[in-house]
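I am writing to request your help with a piece of structural work I have in hand. Here, with my thanks, is the record as I have it:
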Amino acid sequence: MPRPTRVAIDLRPLSRGPSTGIGLILTQILEELPRRGFEFVGVSDRPVTAPEVVESIEVRGGSGGRIRWERNPLPGILGALRPTPDLFHATWNHGVPSGLPFPSVLSLHDVIPWIAPERVPWPRPAVLHRWLYRRHVRESAQNAAAIVTLTEASRREIVDRLPEASSKIEVVPCAVPRWLGPPTPQAIASARGRFGGRYWLYLGGFDPRKGVELLVEAMAIAFPGGAGAPVLVLAGSPNRLASDLARSAAERGVRVILPGYVPDAELSGLLGGAELFVYPSRLEGFGIPPLLAMAAGTPTVTSDIAAIREVVGNAAILFPSGDARALASRLAEVARDPGSLSPLRARGKERASQFSVGAMAERMIRAYERAVGTRTGSG
């Protein structure tokens, strides 16, 4: 029997508190690929906070800032691993060192900070961090034997900025997690009871590119004075922008609830209990929340941008990105005729079923095997 392919993998996305989109992708890799002939050793600059995923994976690391850690001590940590890995997987948009004696795969989920730096909350000084980001993405793409991204739309944006990387890129879409089962009647009733019955839902981050302020504005336009409006639930890890949105909503007469981060165990009920899921993001490399909403059978309204179109197909209501009045029009139409949403429930479930963990794993394995087949180190 051939020995497993040994992969060193960057686990830092699982060391930053509650798991987000990158964390979901990473946990699916760690859960699925060991049964398909791969074994993992983790590297991180902090303790990993997802023991249910990595309890059987040895984790090596040392402290340091994100880019400083990637330049030093990461190369030394990787070089000292025994048995020597067949492959290193950098999972966080950059972090492929030069000079490794084995090949690397780079997950370059998107290049949004390159495309629209004004939409990214950079550390200060912002100009320096923008320059560092671009340099390290370019270097990592050069050092990698293969690059994986999430959509064809993201692939095109990467090639526009890094044309020399074109031949290396594999598209590996996200998957609906196995733990997201159909919402039970009890879970739906619990969610509706928590939020007072009828509610519309946003789930995701609170940063400038997500366009959540656009949703608040659209609700105020669609429901002047709040008459006939559902409660708007804005779910996600809170920050100052979330607090500002809540104040703005109150001033506009929009009823908003901020439940904070929603654990995985509660997510199916939260999605299934919503009358409507709204995702007004201006920029995406994929768009995991609309995928999860469709999987739960929740009708979805989302912005019409290339990556999201690639995910939702004809199973969602689209509006022109950044257009609050157009979004308000879509929301008002839904409120007038909620029965029109029924066909979206079945179409959404069917569309989401195409994004399986098994299909994701097969594409990721193809990228891994492509990189290992080069038999060359990085840089």
The mean pLDDT is 94. The first strand starts at residue 5 and ends at 10. The longest helix spans residues 126-143.
